[in-house]
Specification:
By secondary structure, the protein is α/β, with parallel strands linked by helices. It has 11 helices and 10 strands. 50% of the residues are buried.
Length: 327
């Protein structure tokens, strides 16, 4: 059984390598960047990892770039300042509609879907010493860190806290920086929207005692009704602090590509990422959801033609023609 799995994996990797060798690369860029987010967050770890993997497999220079997260990534990819990026379905929809706060009125239609990444759970963390064990325990005027300005967390979590009746002072910053502020007593709570495990939370667990706060059933239902999120459960195995699964809500993330990139280049990059999930989960556990069958989680963005071709050929994807860029 093990030998069969190894042979199958080797065949997939070899097929991917052969695919990249057999295509005409004359119009490929000589280098690329992937827009991620702040250091200490899942986007940075995941994005830098797959950027390095694609660069190595395709034999060109590439890497992750620190950014403000999903909103800024939509802008960077739309303008071509970054070839690739990562976004969340909510910010993607706002960007297409011209309501991205980075460039109000600009409809960012040059950012195309590339491949499904994972779900972003919304979770709340506080120091155990604070006594905050539920959302209702958060005191009036609490200083809450919502992540980098313009990030998915910063875009949606304040509105979610409003919906749940929390009165707070808003703070922004990179996840690592906010984790340090929480530990130093400068923040009461951090409201994370990031793939789990969030590196900053894992680091906090090592250094101090924390509470990872779940939503009640009623709170979860309110959020699902008011926002483009679905129910989610953070598995107890995700963090050493958790003794049982924690109730949450989540939003899907997708990798994006500038729509004008050569189809063969994007198809080759997708092939590298989607053909070997074991290597991707080695980069970050959240990649357990980076699977071909999750192509259908994109309900917002038009597909890059090269990506659409890969999913139709390899995942039996039934992508409508009007959802493929250029059609």
């Amino acid at each position: 059984m093990k030998l069969t799995a190894i042979l199958a994996s080797t065949t997939i990797i070899a097929a991917g390598a052969a695919f990249a060798q057999d295509v005409d690369k004359s119009d490929w860029p000589s280098s690329f960047t992937v827009g991620t987010a702040s250091q200490g967050g899942t986007y940075f770890a995941y994005g830098s990892g797959w950027a390095n993997l694609v660069a190595e497999e395709l034999g060109i220079t590439g890497g992750g770039e620190v950014t403000g997260g999903p909103m800024q990534n939509m802008a960077l990819v739309h303008t071509g300042e970054a070839a690739f990026g990562m976004t969340t379905m909510g910010p993607a929809a706002e960007s297409l509609a011209g309501t991205n706060p980075i460039a109000p009125g600009l409809e960012m239609t040059q950012a195309c879907a590339m491949f499904p990444m994972y779900q972003t759970p919304f979770s709340v963390t506080a120091l155990a010493s604070s006594g905050i064990e539920s959302v209702s325990d958060i005191p009036d005027g609490a200083k809450i860190g919502f992540g980098p300005a313009g990030s998915t967390s910063d875009t949606y979590f304040p509105r979610m806290m409003d919906t749940l009746g929390v009165n707070y002072e808003r703070r922004n910053g990179g996840w690592s920086d906010l984790g340090g502020q929480l530990q130093d007593g400068l923040l009461d709570v951090i409201a994370f929207a990031a793939g789990v495990p969030v590196p900053a939370v894992s680091q906090l667990e090592v250094q101090t005692d924390v509470n990872i706060i779940e939503f009640t059933e009623e709170e979860q239902a309110k959020l699902i009704e008011a926002f483009p999120v679905s129910d989610f459960s953070i598995k107890a195995s995700t963090y050493s602090t958790l003794e049982e699964d924690a109730r949450s809500v989540s939003m899907w993330n997708f990798s994006i590509a500038n729509c004008d990139l050569p189809a063969s280049f994007v198809k080759a990059a997708v092939d590298v990422v989607m053909s070997d999930n074991e290597r991707m989960t080695g980069i970050h556990k959240a990649a357990a959801s980076t699977l071909p069958e999750n192509w259908d989680k994109n309900k917002v963005l038009k597909w890059h033609p090269g990506a659409a071709e890969w999913f139709m050929e390899n995942a039996g994807a039934d992508i409508p023609a009007d959802m493929i860029y250029g059609n």
